[in-house]
Amino acid sequence: MKKRYSLLLLLAGFFLLQSCQENRAYRALIVTGQSNHNWQASATILKTILDQTKLFSTDIAQTPKEKGDMSNFHPNFSKYSIVVMDYNGDSWPEATKTAFLEYVKNGGGVVIYHEADNSFPDWKEYNEIIGLGGWNHRSEKDGPYVYYSKNQLVIDTVKGSAGSHGPQHEYLVRARKADHPILKGLPVAWMHGKDELYSTLRGPAKNMEILATAYADTAKRGTGRDEPMLMTITYGKGRIFHTAMGHVGKDATHPATECVGFIVTLQRGAEWAACGNVTQTIPIDFPNVAGSVSRPEYKEVTLTEDLDKIAAYTIDKSTKYLTDLQARIRQVSGNPAALLDLEKQMVSILKETGATVEGKKLILKELAWMGSDYCIPAVQELLKNDELKDAATFTLERMKGPRKI
Amino acid sequence: MTNSNRRSFLKNSAVASVGALVLPQIIPSTAMGMGGKLAPSNRLVMGAIGTGSQGKSNMRDFLELNKEVQFVAVCDVDTNNLQKAKALADGAYVNNDCRTYGDYREFLEKEKLDAVCIALPDHWHGIIYTAAVEKKLHVYGEKPICRTIRDGQTIVKAVQKNKITWQTGSWQRSRPNFHRGAELAINGRLGKIHHIEVGLPNGNRGIGTPPVQDVPKELNWDMWLGPAPKVAYRGVSHWNWRWILEYSGGQLTDWAGHHIDIANWGAGLEHTGPVEIVGEGVYPREGIYNVPVEYDFNCKYANGIEMRVCNEARLEKGSGTTWYGDKGWIHVNRGETLFASDPKILEEVIGENEIHLIKSDNHWQNFVNCVRSGEKTIAPVEVAYRAISVALLGEIAMQTGQKIQWDPDKEEIIGNPMAARLLDRPYRAPWQLPTI
Ligand SMILES: [Zn+2]
Predict the structure, then answer these.
(1) Going residue by residue through chain B (436 aa), what tens digit of pLDDT does each one get?
(2) Which residue, of A384, B74, B143, B433, has the fewest CB within 10 Å?
(3) Which stretches within B306-416 are classed as H helix?
(4) Which residues of A touch B (CB under 8 A)?
């Protein structure tokens, strides 16, 4: 593989992985190729996440390696609705920089991902695009620290270096602009998967809105401030979505990008950057304060998987598949046909000899309020089962409606 | 114990021995031909059912009332809590007389009391409140008064039938800032009220799925569960029952009896309910805690007022109650907080012919006074029922994901039999909600 990359690099000056997906609303370009992070992994992850929306068809543009000849690196930004920066490396040729700025000024969308806010410390306009940045000798000369403290936005011009983080840990992300299209409908706070918590970022912060923050706990060598995690910036007519989260290192697993909170805010942020609006629905597995939620394969859990897991449920196992089912019921509860469809699949678990008693109890509890006449024979059948008699009685009783006083 | 108190105590005991009764040693005054009224010189003979942290806290508040009440018996399914409660009572009277029970049925059968103070997990409220009221005991009962609308209706009916004095533990009503805020609002100092915001605490973080474990020897687990489904013990009982839907609706239903109650008080909605409820809840995905960790729903009332109830992180003003009217807003919260859009609103004087809300500066004293006088308490059962109904209807809207139409007069969900099932929760046999 490496060899083929190098050959292409020689031919084109950079490598462009062309996406072949059709009929998608937007084209996205991930720019990568140099970073202090595992960009080989992260670029693929970002592509997977974006393509999964079925809104984006995503290409990857790869720069030459460090200190390589950049002169031919000149992607055609204008073909794309968003450019996703997964890059922290050498300067680009002046013409490329100009093309990028023209692209943004004319309304092009940008997603700044994690270490991309470390990049280009001396490129003034780029720093206006990212709003806040860190490391690479950034200091008070680059702009103030911007953070929240006691629920107040603080813009602090005090001297000091920019960019820091303690050891990776799970942390709570808290919405500050819950009504922004990117966050609308999400919980106002959720646990984020194990990640670096970028802190002490500073920058011009012009035309910037902080959408969400995370408290950098001093117990985790943090600043004791609520640090910006999700931001939007406008530059000319261009919209920029900046996520400081999503560290991808050399480890085999990447809990920060597998976090559903990261995935969904990136997908929604990307759509907003592309068109100023968000049409995506909130997935049933979005995390909240109760705990982080991971998608190890970047795939949303399916109904079949939920039902299979419920059918195999024992009291020592996770109940998250039941929570998913409850959310699915809620989604279709106003639609009798769709609800009956779901009910039929639930009833099939009641009839399954291989399904566990505890799994059947979970199903019975839901049928108690949303079941129709369809489920009654199957529930009545369970009255004969000593272990399920009580739960089946509960269901049949509740289905009759409230008791008379 | 002061001399005069000891004298009155001894006098009371003496009456009992003259009557040659083994039980009770203290005769309840209401049973002594006083026409149900309590002479000011006599102490209220009380018992407590549920002696966990809130139960003991209420006992302490009653005991602080210059010895106006005497606890003669306590009841709990946890012998540790029971012994602590007995020690609390005995310590106050310097004796060893407080009797203990593990079963409320035996407690209600054997004890002859004036009043009982009840602080239990919500899933027990329907049965035990009703049973105590049917024994014609005056009740100081913790909020929320019910786990379901049906439980609540039953309790209200029982109180009205038995004409006892009821005080709900909605003690914010007895704090000056809440009283003042509500009185300004209801007297039109904000003009016509058009909407209300109620911010309640954010939900609890999960504890995952703790392993099944041995029931502690002091705890009668089957009795603790009572009418709730039989489940294995995982270390969740006292206090943290609050995070499991079988026993509670979480912060929402816990706090409804405070900030929603206050909202109703100031807006004249104490004796009615919303006509339309719609909203969303955020539920933990993993673990045994299953109450919403975030919640946000909107209620429309027949008179056009709208009330938004949500977790505090969703509101600029955070927790508390805010009434918004044509002429501004008033915000009240714990910590004696009282703010208004214009500070002048807070200086307004309420005229003689305007509405004067019942005033109390001690919630427990107000109960004792009303038992003596027969007057309505500051937090009667009907208004407690209306406050918790708002939360329970919100809970139904969130669970079903549907807009709920509610008839506040007939107290029925309109046109949605599926959602209507959630107005009630079947009990585990042999437990039954009594018919009144
Ligand atoms: Zn990193």
Answers:
(1) 333 333 333 333 333 333 333 444 465 655 444 444 455 558 899 999 999 999 999 999 999 997 789 999 999 999 999 999 999 999 998 999 999 999 999 999 999 999 999 999 999 999 999 999 999 999 999 999 999 999 999 999 999 999 999 999 999 999 999 999 999 999 999 999 999 999 999 987 778 889 999 999 999 999 999 999 999 999 999 889 999 999 999 999 999 999 999 999 999 999 999 999 999 999 999 889 999 999 999 999 999 999 999 999 999 999 999 999 999 999 999 999 999 999 999 999 999 999 999 999 999 999 999 999 999 999 999 999 999 999 999 999 999 999 999 999 999 999 999 999 999 999 999 999 999 9
(2) A384
(3) 363-373, 381-400
(4) 174, 178, 185, 187-189, 285, 287-291, 293, 315-320, 323-324, 326-327, 329-331, 333-334, 368-370, 390-391, 393-394, 397-399, 401-405
**Ligand 1 center from residue A249 Cα (angstroms):** 7
Assign residue A13 a region: left if phi > 0, alpha if psi is -120 to 50, beta otherwise?
Answer: left
* Cα–Cα distance, B118 to B108 (Å, whole number): 12
> What are residue B9's phi and psi, to 5 degrees?
-65, -45
Q: Taking CA B133 as the corner, what is the angle to CA B128 and CA B137, rounded to the nearest 5 degrees?
A: 115
Rg, Å, chain A Cα set: 25
Query: Which tokens is A62 given?
Result: 């790869």
Which residue type sits at B24?
P
Q: How far apart are CA A309 and CA A71, in angstroms?
A: 54
Under an 8 A CB cutoff, do A290 and B421 touch?
Answer: no
Say what the pTM is: 0.90
Tell me the one-letter amino acid at A277. N
CB–CB of A405/B149 below 8 Å? no
Q: Ligand 1 centroid to A122 CA: how many Å? A: 20
Mark residue A157 as left, alpha or beta (left: phi above 0; alpha: psi -120 to 50; beta: remaining).
Answer: alpha
Q: Which amino acid is at A68?
A: G
In 3D space, the residue among B266, B261, B289 whose CA is nearest the CA of residue B142 turns out to be B261
* Domains of chain B from N-terminus onward: 3-172 (3.40.50.720), 175-352+381-423 (3.30.360.10)
